[in-house]
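This section describes the prediction task in plain terms. A model, or a person checking by hand, is given the sequence of a single protein chain and must write out its three-dimensional structure as a string of tokens. No templates, partner chains or ligands are provided. The sample shown here is typical of the held-out split.
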Amino acid sequence: MTSVVSTPSSSGTTDVKHNEALPEDKFAANVDALFELITEIITDLYDRGHNVVDPKIVSIAGIALKAFSRTGLIETFISLSHKHWSLIQKRDRKYFVEHAGQIFAGIKLDKIEAFSNLFRENEDGTILIGKEDEDLIGDYFFTLVRISISYIHRRRGPYIQDKKPAYKVKYEENIDLEKEAKLWNVKLEF
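The expected answer:
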């Protein structure tokens, strides 16, 4: 299976440094890897007779997402997901059933909402995908949020003013970045 492209450091924190790859580049790479994983999972399910969605549709969605600007991709995710970050952090299946399809926002493809069906419980209480795959998808979303926090920090233009951290630009002011960075173990450098 595919592994998460951007991972936390061994200390459990992600440092935001200005000489690293841009957050939007890391984000796009992780979205690409997430789509590869989802395509693998859906192809496996499809081959076993579970026709939740045709794997070709997922591949087309992945191609369509690559056409988005990297900035547009991460900003769309932030605007549509930030109010659900606590559910993502808890790895609450409710997020994946009700909201995870938002990463596909802007893609006008039939049945793309079927992604959520991967996480819905069957009558017997089971879900289509295994725990390992569910955890891997959760890892990607977890990483996408952490990268989003880094992106917001960078967009705000961090600097030191009178020996105190400050920002030059107002961006996504509805997100308490200091609180979110602490909750998600993202170290913000000024």
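For orientation: The radius of gyration is 17 Å.
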